Amino acid sequence: MADYDDSDLPEPSLKNIIDQDSLQWVFVGGKGGVGKTTTSCCLGVQLAKYRKKVLIVSTDPAHNLSDAFCQKIGREPTPINGFDNLCAMEIDANDDMEKMQQEMVESANAGTGSEEESGISALMAELTSSIPGIDEAMSFSELMKQVQSLDYDVVVFDTAPTGHTLRLLSFPTILEKALGKLMELKDRFGGLIGQASAMFGGGNPGQMQDMMLGRLEETRAVINKVNDAFQDPDLTTFVCVCIPEFLSIFETERLVQELSKFGIDSHNIVVNQVLFPEKDAEELAEWLDANLASLPKEAQDICSKMMARKKMQDKYIGQCFDLYGDDFNVTLMPLLDYEVRGVEKIKLFSENLIDPIDLEEN
């Protein structure tokens, strides 16, 4: 697109992520249907060239990693065909939460372990089923515990659509504040906590209180660690993915603002499904005007619709550069005439993430 002088803009690629060796967490998110999974897979493939062990994690309930790589990917890290240092896994936080609650209830009912442990399990099960939002927050905590226990240099998160992702990223802050309040109240209402938990499983109220607060403190420590990591730009960054349409650009603006509120670094935007990103709409229009009359009627209709779409895309790409071009690495990914499925096609398409498209090229 010859309108844009990109000489003074940040490099239009994700090479900055590849070069940042300190990164441990890379979130990829955006509106539904904009190509988050393809972008995550491509980024994982590129990172695997330079990192020892790379993991791609899908937190979207509608998992697509298996479809993208054309192989079965489960709840445990699955090696990707053709790589010895790239794995992927699909996690369903809701299923994890249901299993955790079920285990708590079974532990309490069966009386396994000490009476105190059974009482704690019963109370925690009751809490996680009665407090709005706590189920998602605790499932996130379990997810982070699971991922942190794995030995990977960098983890790429293929996230759910924007709204769900923003809730996910807000959980560390929400849980930290909630647990902080609980710890402040322990001296004032600690006896009540111990008595309540004792009601569920017997045992000494004092011991029950200490165990309950110990469990909460352990969770809080994990959350604090995650929160600190999320807000450290050396460790965590967020890649916003969109397509050149109004709703998607608008959603991206909201996402960027929310990430800023959470203190999460974001300086990369990937624009997918771009028609002829190296061409300019005006140049194509000149060619079409000069040749339209010589084309069959059906070809005229097809070219006219393509031209209308190209002009619309150029308008929104221009707005994207106006909004973010000075501070963000804006990467344009071309619309292809085939689906990006399978390792070989993902490898090929991923080169577009690090090989910038020259906006001055004709």
Nutshell version of this structure?
This protein is α/β, with parallel strands linked by helices and 362 residues long. The protein has helices at 15-19, 36-47, 65-69, 93-110, 115-130, 134-149, 162-201, 205-230, 246-262, 281-291, 297-324, 343-354, and strands at 25-30, 54-58, 78-79, 86-90, 154-158, 236-242, 268-274, 329-334.
List the helices and strands and how they pair.
Elements (H helix, E strand, L loop, with lengths): L14 H5 L5 E6 L5 H12 L6 E5 L6 H5 L8 E2 L6 E5 L2 H18 L4 H16 L3 H16 L4 E5 L3 H40 L3 H26 L5 E7 L3 H17 L5 E7 L6 H11 L5 H28 L4 E6 L8 H12 L8
Parallel strand pairs: 1-5, 1-6, 2-4, 2-5, 6-7, 7-8
Antiparallel strand pairs: 3-4
Order of helices and strands: HEHEHEEHHHEHHEHEHHEH
Measured as a percent range, the helix fraction is 55-70%
Principal-axis shape: elongated
Q: Please state roughly what percent of the residues sit in beta strands, choosing from under 5%, 5-15%, 15-25%, 25-35%, 35-45% or over 45%.
A: 5-15%
Q: How do the strands line up in the largest sheet?
A: 3-4-2-5-1-6-7-8
**Structural class given helices, strands, pairing?**
alpha/beta
The largest sheet is:
8 strands, mixed
* Tally of alpha and pi helices: 12
Q: Report the span from N to C terminus.
A: 8 Å
List unreliable stretches of 5+ residues: none
Cα-based radius of gyration, to the nearest Å = 25 Å
Q: Please tell me the overall pLDDT.
A: 79
Find the count of extended strands (DSSP E, 2+ residues): 8
